Design the sequence.
């Protein structure tokens, strides 16, 4: 099996190299495509090598990252995007059986409040505004993501942990995007969507012409993989180092400031947990013979990325759109959201905007035909669910941090500093790292909210489900069926 896969990877790398030579007639470009093809094969090999992959986790992660990729690749072909979402709903309906068993568990999960709470509120708002068509579309979205939650709970009862399969699906998606963009990975300019969304972003890696994903989404997707694999003692040193290398490379390729900030926050939390383990137990944190070197490695990688990306002026403080400022127009979008909320009817103040099904934002400076996302999870909760949406967002955030063990760590910090004995945590270290490091990204990304871009959301949801169901399971509980894994 491994020999066949290696042979297939080599053939694929040679094939993309040959295609690039045919397209450009340039030997150097062909060699660059060959290297990129080998990188893509290595990423796929890492995914395949992970222990603990379950097919349910792989399918769950695949549908979410697949929906995100297709929504960028075929943004003007709604039939493909909606068809994929329909298939997603059908598969989740099958995986969620029996459908009513876990309904009582839903309010206890932070991801439910973050992922489907605002859809429920949005449906109610549309009905109160007598916008039946928009309400029907939101019911469809709500149905898909509610079924996703129930499918995660039902699958977790069988497999105990879906998160490895989910990040494996993310790795396969990264590998596919790398293979698609192999001909231009090392070029200064890259393929971007033809719809205008990639304007002034040709220097950032999106994938290839036939498979595209927004650079911020791609960079953060790679970082999610790093956080799940890098700190965990369940994986080998080679797998952990490989994951970190992939994350660093894609921060550089995508030139994503949000991913950089996310990685910096994760590096800080990881260093704290390495120190924390010297005084109290930490679940699933890999033992390092040189903890100081392990803690320093992410910071060294980030300093290198910062330097080669142009430093403060050429990277972190860069204005990427004319007149958009450092926030790339986000500040103007947020101002528009608050203006619309202030000027809107009482129903929309309480239940969110009902302008369209996804409550997108329209700015005069961008044109009436451009639908903008909020690029801020908190502002997005206000736009999609009004005051009630913000309340649901805060409840979800509290529950998520609680299940990740963050509140417990804060309460026990004084005892740890005094070297007093404290209780053993129940959440794994990687979940605490992910939950804390995603907090800064709330300011510049919607990915904490459930939707076609909810890759972070679905991983956190699966992790919460594993923690909650493990806590309520009887000591002698065993999975209903063996949890398959790939060698």
Sequence:
């Amino acid at each position: 099996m491994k020999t066949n896969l290696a042979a297939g990877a080599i053939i694929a790398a040679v094939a993309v190299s040959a295609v690039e030579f045919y397209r450009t007639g340039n030997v150097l470009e062909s060699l660059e495509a060959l290297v990129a093809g080998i990188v893509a094969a290595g990423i796929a090999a890492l995914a395949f090598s992970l222990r603990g992959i379950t097919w349910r986790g792989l399918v769950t992660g695949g549908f979410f990252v697949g929906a995100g990729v297709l929504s960028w690749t075929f943004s003007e072909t709604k039939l493909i995007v909606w068809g994929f979402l329909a298939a997603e709903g059908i598969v989740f309906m099958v995986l969620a059986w029996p459908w009513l068993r876990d309904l009582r568990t839903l309010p206890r999960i932070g991801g439910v409040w973050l992922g489907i709470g605002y859809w429920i509120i949005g449906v109610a708002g549309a009905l109160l505004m007598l916008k039946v068509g928009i309400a029907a579309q939101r019911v469809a979205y709500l149905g898909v993501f509610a079924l996703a939650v129930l499918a995660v709970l039902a699958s977790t009862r069988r497999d105990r942990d879906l998160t490895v399969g989910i990040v494996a699906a993310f790795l396969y998606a990264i590998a596919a995007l790398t293979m698609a963009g192999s001909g231009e990975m090392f070029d200064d300019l890259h393929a971007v969507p033809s719809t205008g969304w990639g304007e002034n972003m040709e220097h950032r890696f999106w994938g290839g012409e036939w498979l595209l994903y927004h650079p911020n989404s791609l960079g953060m997707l790679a970082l999610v993989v790093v956080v799940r694999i890098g700190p965990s003692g369940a994986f080998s040193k080679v797998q952990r180092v490989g994951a970190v290398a992939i994350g660093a490379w894609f921060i550089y390729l995508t030139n994503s400031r949000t991913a950089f900030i996310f990685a910096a926050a994760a590096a800080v939390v990881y260093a704290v947990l390495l120190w924390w383990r010297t005084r109290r137990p930490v679940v699933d944190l890999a033992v390092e013979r040189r903890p100081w070197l392990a803690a320093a490695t992410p910071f060294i990688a980030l300093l290198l990325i910062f330097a080669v990306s142009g430093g403060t002026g050429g990277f972190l403080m860069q204005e990427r759109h004319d007149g958009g400022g450092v926030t790339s127009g986000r500040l103007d979008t947020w101002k528009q959201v608050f203006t619309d909320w202030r000027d809107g009817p009482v129903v929309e103040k309480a239940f969110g905007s009902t302008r369209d099904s996804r409550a997108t934002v329209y700015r005069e400076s961008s044109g009436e035909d451009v639908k903008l996302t909020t690029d801020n999870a908190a502002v997005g909760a206000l736009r999609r669910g009004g005051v009630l949406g913000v309340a649901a967002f805060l409840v979800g955030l509290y529950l998520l941090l609680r299940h990740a063990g963050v509140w417990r760590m804060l309460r026990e910090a004084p005892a740890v500093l005094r070297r007093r004995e404290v209780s053993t945590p129940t959440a794994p270290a990687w979940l605490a790292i992910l939950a804390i490091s995603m907090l800064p990204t709330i300011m510049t990304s919607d990915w904490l909210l459930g939707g076609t871009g909810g890759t972070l959301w679905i991983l956190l949801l699966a992790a919460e489900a594993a923690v909650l169901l493990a806590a309520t399971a009887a000591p002698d509980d065993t999975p209903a069926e063996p949890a398959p894994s790939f060698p």
